[in-house]
Amino acid sequence: MKKSILKTLVLGLLAMLFSFNFNLFGADKYPNKTIKVFCPWGAGGGTDAVLRAISAAVEKDLGVTLAVENKTGGAGAIGHAAIKDAKPDGYTLGMITFEINSLPQQGLIDFTYADYTPVCLLNADAATLTVKADAPYNTIAEFVEYAKAHPDEISIGNSAPGSVWHIGAGLLANATGIKVKHIPFEGAANAVTALAGGHIQAVSVSLAEVKSQLDAGKVKVLGIMDDKKAELYPNIPTFKEQGFDITYYTWRGIALPKGVDPAIVKIIVDAFEKASKNEEFLKTAKALNLDVRYLGPDDFAKFLKDNFEAVTKTLEETHLLDEVK
Length: 325
Known about the structure:
By secondary structure, this protein is an alpha/beta fold. It has two domains: 35-125 and 250-324, D-Maltodextrin-Binding Protein, domain 2 (3-Layer(aba) Sandwich); 141-242, 3-Layer(aba) Sandwich (D-Maltodextrin-Binding Protein, domain 2). Helix content is 43%, strand content 19%. It has a six-stranded mixed beta sheet. It has a five-stranded mixed beta sheet with strand order 7-6-8-5-9, sandwiched between helices. It is globular and about 65 Å long.
């Protein structure tokens, strides 16, 4: 009997030791496999560019692959839903964008920013007014004058109905009193391609998203809706410099689905904070003309709430909700 009891105790102790060592050094250590990173927008746009750049920096810190997957459609609804509905194990996260704060008001999604665990804000980029290189206007004032003389003849491309750039174009039209046609595309990259091809007359996307076509001489930027000039393009004037008091930005951040273990959340938060200061990431962001603006999880949560309220007010004032419904 004593030998049997002793044997049971020894086996139990060995099992405990094995379990401890397995959890400490084996499969339960996070992270130990590829982390999926969902992008709600197509390849080639600003969102895709900044997400791939930051993911490459995070990989070096966590020691696992961050696999970016573009889940497009529904003006960003499909990708945002995929992040929200992912298994809360820390192996799926994604980039949420401005549209999470403009889609609910349109009835296109039945969830909001509050349905995520915020990780960080990474980037904010001002809108531009970009036209073909051979367009007959070279300033905002000339564009406005032309648009007033040709109502509803200018088509401005955006990244989707009710998207950040649709609202940006609506804000421009509302502030200047012009009448234009708003043409939706599945992502900013497609809108810029259409502009370069002469299918539309303007886009209201970020400088980062027109950079390649601008550098190729196929388009020109009439102005940027920022408080300051772009570092890489100091020759591009702001709207304010041209007498139009308009500032407007998109933003991009990282989020997890609700319910992830707080210990895992902290690992991810720390990794992205470190990556936001990574020299290679900052170098890439600068080359792409992406404006890095980091906020940690608490500040990002407040930012999301404040931005949602501001966007709702803008949608109501510009009457774009009537247009997209």
